[in-house]
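Record 1 of the preview.
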Amino acid sequence: MTNYVEVLLRRHSGREWTLDGDNYENLTMLDGGTKPTKKSLDDAWPEVEAEIAAERQAKTAIRQSALAKLAALGLTDAEIAALLRA
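->
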């Protein structure tokens, strides 16, 4: 199922719109421009979904790297956990 909000935010940034729920029929363009077609938004969703997954994976890798570096400095798991809560 297409997440229209994500597609609009990523592929139509700078445009003004409202969306009631996540239903294409409730999409209203406020900037006077042409409303993107449902098909164009649906077609863009797999690429947007892949971008989101890649961003999550990158964040996870960065977090794991940071945790490993803190441990290599000699911090205990409890000290690392305390830093993350701060």
